[in-house]
Amino acid sequence: MINFDDLNKAEDNINELFKLRDELISGSPFLNDMKSKILFYKKACTEMPDDANNFLSLIDAPVQSSLSLNPSNLNYSSVTGATGSFYSVTGATREIIKSYGSSHYNLINEYEALNKTEELIDAIKLIIQNYRPELQQYNPVGLLMDAKSAFAQWKAGAIDNSDLAKDIRAFQDIFNGLLGKAWVQQAYNPLPKKYPDFNWRKMSETLGKVGGGCKKTLQCSEGTDDRLHLDFTEILKKTKVVDAAEMERIFKEYIEHVYSIVYLINQDLMK
Length: 271
Fold this sequence. Notes:
73% of the residues lie in helices and 0% in strands.
């Protein structure tokens, strides 16, 4: 026969099931996104078998993260971390497909449909605007929205590549400064009188989510950030000339890069 304490245990058990339900609901959009990515890579491997191993190598970390998900560890943080890993390899994925020329442009179009730039910008905004006030000192949300507006104007032909590069690099500089400040505030106690130079590896180790390879993926994204910063700098100075398609690719890749970063970072350390 049960006793009174069993009533408490039964209530706690049901609450835990409700908690799992709530985690599934909050994580469902990201799970759907990951499933769409997996289906795309299956198609890409089938259509381009010679590069199947290259695709599989690219997505090793996010797929391993997806495989590790189960009812006992399923939560918003683990699901979004796996999603962030998928978005960290978008640039390399495009390069593999484009190396085949126009014969596989259908895959590029399909891939672009999975990565809608304006929607990613809005998702980034929702995350950043919840960072603690001192991390928003230089208005990263406002600069991000300026870049979104500039992208719309650029697509309409109202501004040129240099103008767009200027706006998005302005956000990049402030966003990286934000990451640096968050890293120092978390890693140092007491805070140094003079903040050390930004170190991407140390930032990743300090701020990256635990598990799912998030810290490693975040560390590996440094090269992408450096390359895109150089692209933006050269384009805004007009020492590098790119056509519209290339400018759009660079802009999109950076937005996907930031989207990846915000979900690879432990958000609790930013609030």
